[in-house]
Structure formats: C-alpha cells, structure tokens
Please model this.
Amino acid sequence: MDKMKSLYNQAVNKVQSKIIEDIDRYFERHDNLPTLDQYYHDRNNFLQQIWQNIWVNVVQGAYSIKERKQYLIEKGVQFESADNN
Model:
C-alpha cells in the first residue's frame, strides 16, 4: 500500500505541474487577463482528462501487466482469454 500512496503523490505532483503550465500558456495567449472561471470554462475538457491520463500512466509504468491483472482478479474481475497470466 505504501507503493500505491507514493504513486498517488507522484501523480498529484505531475498533475499540479501540468495544470500550472497550462494556466501559464492560457493566460499568455490572451491580451486581456481572463478570469479563472473563464480558464476553467475554456479548459474544462483538459482538466477532466489530465488526472486520469497521468494516473493511468504512472500506475501502468509501476506495475507489470501480470501484477495489474492479479489485482483485478483479486477484486473479482474475470477475464475471457486463453492466456490467464
């Protein structure tokens, strides 16, 4: 569980960094300083997807396919494949 907590913290830090970079780029593109609400409205899709994308990448990089599959099996997910590794 310590590994998962560490991965979570790593993902949070990456997401924060990416959002700060995106805010900087967003504000640089505008002549008039937009509000944070306007940023949220314009970048809503990015904000919704960034956590999922980074979390999936961090976890996939930290666990092998076999480990991920074993975790899902332990949680009750069944697989229909000839290869059960």
About this structure: The mean pLDDT is 91.
